[in-house]
Structure formats: C-alpha cells, structure tokens
Amino acid sequence: MTAHNDIVRMNPLERRLADIVVPVLNDLGYELVRLAVLGRETPTVQIMADHSDGRLISVEDCEKISNAVSAVLDVEDPIPGKWSLEVSSAGIDRPLTRPKDWERFTGHLAKVEMEAPLEGRRRFAGPITGLRGQEALLRLEDGTEVALPLGAMRKARLVLTDALLKEGAPSKAGAEANGENAANQEDIH
After folding, report:
1. pLDDT per residue over 4-56, tens digit each?
2. 174 domain-assigned
3. Structural domain total, the chain
4. 131: Cβ contacts below 8 Å, ≥ 6 apart
5. Domain range holding 109?
6. 158, CA 20 to 30 Å: which among 49, 68, 130, 135?
C-alpha cells in the first residue's frame, strides 16, 4: 500500500484529511491516488482511489468508499460547517500524484505543468522514461530527456492514447463501467 505521504502535492487540510481517510481506504483494499478540497463556502472533498492492486474502481466501489469515509469524517469532523464528498476512480488518463506512478507508467505519454518555469518553460509533454529520486523523467519531442522535480509540479497526468487504452491502464475490468471511470459518488454533509 502507498502511504499518502508519497502524494506529492497536498495542503495542510488535505494532509489532515488523508491521515483520516487513508487507513479507511487501506482497510477496504483501496489506495488513495488524489485527495483535494475545492471551494470555500461549502467545500467539496474529492477522493480518487484505485484498488490496491492497481485496478480501476467501479460504481459499487465508489459507494463503498463514500459510505465508509463519510462515517469516519462525520465522527472526526475535520471541516467545520457543510461540505460534500465526491469519490471517483482515477480513470485511465489519471493524474500522476505519486512517485510510483512515474515508474508504473514508464513509456506512456504524460503532460506536466510546473509551478514555476523550468528551463524557460512551464509545460512539458512526452513519454515517461522513469523516475530518478524525486524527479520524473520525460523524453521531449526533440529527443532530449528532462528531469522534472515532483515537488515543483502544479499538475501532471497521463494522456489518453491508443497504447494506454490497449494496455487497459490499470485494468479493463473497471474500464467497462468507466467513463472517467465508474462514477462520482457524492455525499453531502
């Protein structure tokens, strides 16, 4: 199981929520791919998850996760006032949030946006060539390889390609129920 501390970009509230959510997910046989809190008035807690073996999750999995996480968050009460919970699969063209994602998807096309310019640019795209320490490696169109610090990325995601679809990304089993996969299971508190 991946520790949520491996997820590169989370603010303090998201880390606190992950501290609560990850044990619940792990007990159910899932892994956290991404956790985000969006909005201010009535925030939405978004959870993206996979099966621990990397398979995409189904609508039923989203519902199971939502019920379990919702119950724990209601008890812990980490967010004052009203908030909502959305649970979904990371999908095939998933965000790349953990170091292991860069190793797992070596050879597939990714797009990366950096927080600040690196080598004079913020956006990079190309096949993933691996991971070196805390740097993702991409091969650019001109054939050069660039090392992008994980902690300096604003966002990174796989690009949907025929090769990714053929491989079935995490798996074809979950992809049948997939659109961006499965569904958003939403729960309002």
Report:
1. 566 777 889 999 999 999 999 999 999 999 999 999 889 999 999 999 988 88
2. no
3. 2
4. 99, 102, 103, 137
5. 99-167
6. 68
- Residues 73, 146, single domain; the answer is no
Q: Which two tokens stand for residue 127?
A: 């096949």
Q: Quote the pTM value.
A: 0.81
Residue 79, in any domain of the structure: yes
Give Cα separations from 128 to 109, 125, 137, 166, 189 (angstroms): 6, 9, 6, 17, 40
Q: Is residue 82 part of a domain?
A: yes
> Among 143, 111, 108, 139, which residue's Cα sits nearest to residue 124?
111
pLDDT, one tens digit per residue, over 104-133 is 999 999 999 999 999 899 999 999 999 999
**pLDDT tens readout for residues 126-154:** 999 999 999 999 999 999 999 999 999 99
Residue 73's nearest CA partner among 39, 82, 121, 49 is 82
Surface-to-core class of residue 28, CB atoms within 10 Å of its CB (0-12 exposed, 13-18 middle, 19+ buried)? middle
CATH code assigned at 108 = 2.30.30.180
Residues 79, 131, single domain; the answer is no
